[in-house]
């Protein structure tokens, strides 16, 4: 690896498994120091142990990032342990995918909390640190389904669409502070979560894969690669973008 993130400090949310872990793994290989956050403390510590075994410096913060105090504690952990914060990868999320009228008030609130409030609170606490130092990289994990109106995704798209909209607003607001804000928008990705959905609703997974021109899900490392690029100093002139990594599912 090129060590493009050597000595940079990164917070990765939803890092216990799946795309979040793949991002953390790539950041570690690029030389970053890591604060990993996840709702599940057991999964989180297992992920941290694997990364420490590769030589990475890793601390963890478990909890629900949709809660303001947990987000604050997570961002401050970067300053407490490593003295600063350079990169925030807002990956925490997870869709409750069902027809809109099959949702309950609880599942609607959970979908918004997981995917939008986690991002809002983490950005709100990270940006003052980045602005004070004149440098920052925020990379949000959005969803290509916001662009293509995928079936059973209306509530999920409401949350991810909010993230996409916040990306452009923050990018413009902080453009002269050395801070870039971008979103990587995957389509269907070959994650443990996808396997869990397939076990319950294989027809939904088949339909989602069928809309991908390449005829396959993305791989986690393919998403992490784009996130890593946007987190580097060399991506300094890329901001306010929603970049799809989607096998051609939407184009242009």
What's the topology here?
Layout: E1 9-13, H1 18-29, E2 33-38, H2 41-52, E3 58-62, H3 68-82, E4 87-90, H4 105-133, E5 136-141, H5 145-148, H6 154-173, E6 179-186, H7 192-200, H8 202-210, H9 220-230, E7 242-245
Parallel strand pairs: 1-2, 1-4, 2-3, 4-5, 5-6, 6-7
InterPro entries: NAD(P)-bd_dom_sf, Sc_DH/Rdtase_CS, SDR, SDR_fam
Family: Belongs to the short-chain dehydrogenases/reductases (SDR) family.
Organism: Panacagrimonas perspica
| Total beta-strand segments | 7
Strand order of the largest sheet: 3-2-1-4-5-6-7
What is the number of domains? 1
Second CATH tier, the architecture: 3-Layer(aba) Sandwich
Mean pLDDT: 96
Query: In terms of per-residue confidence, which ranges show pLDDT below 50 for 5 or more consecutive residues?
Result: none
Remind me, CATH topology?
Answer: Rossmann fold
- Main pleated sheet: 7 strands, parallel
Q: Into which percent range does the helicity of residues fall?
A: 40-55%
The gross shape turns out to be globular
Structure characteristics:
252 residues; 9 helices; NAD(P)-bd_dom_sf
Structural summary, described in words:
This protein has 252 residues and is α/β, with parallel strands linked by helices. The chain has one domain: NAD(P)-binding Rossmann-like Domain (Rossmann fold, 3-Layer(aba) Sandwich). It is 48% helix and 15% strand. The chain has a 7-stranded parallel β-sheet with strand order 3-2-1-4-5-6-7, sandwiched between helices. α1 (18-29) crosses α9 and α3 packs parallel to α4 (105-133).
């Amino acid at each position: 690896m090129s060590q493009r993130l050597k000595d940079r400090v990164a917070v990765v949310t939803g890092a216990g498994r799946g795309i979040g872990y793949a991002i953390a793994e790539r950041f570690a290989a690029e030389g970053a120091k890591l604060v990993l956050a996840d709702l599940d403390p057991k999964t989180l510590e297992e992920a941290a142990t694997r990364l420490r075994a590769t030589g990475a410096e890793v601390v963890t913060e478990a909890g629900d990032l949709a809660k303001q105090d947990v987000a604050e504690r997570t961002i401050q952990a970067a300053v407490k342990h490593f003295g600063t914060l350079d990169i925030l990868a807002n990956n925490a999320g997870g869709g409750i995918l069902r027809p809109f009228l099959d949702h309950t008030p609880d599942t609607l609130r959970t979908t918004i909390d997981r995917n939008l409030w986690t991002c809002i609170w983490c950005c709100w606490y990270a940006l003052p640190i980045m602005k004070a130092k004149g440098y920052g990289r925020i990379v949000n994990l959005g969803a290509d389904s916001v662009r293509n109106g995928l079936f059973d995704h209306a509530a999920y798209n409401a949350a991810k669409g909010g993230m996409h909209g916040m990306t452009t607003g923050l990018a413009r607001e902080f453009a002269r502070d050395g801070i870039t804000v971008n979103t990587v928008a995957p389509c269907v990705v070959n994650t443990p979560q996808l396997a869990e959905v397939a076990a319950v609703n294989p027809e939904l997974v088949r339909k989602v894969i069928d809309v991908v021109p390449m005829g396959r899900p993305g791989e986690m490392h393919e998403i992490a690669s784009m996130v890593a690029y946007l987190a580097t100093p060399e991506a300094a002139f890329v901001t306010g973008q929603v970049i799809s990594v989607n096998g051609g599912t939407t184009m242009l």
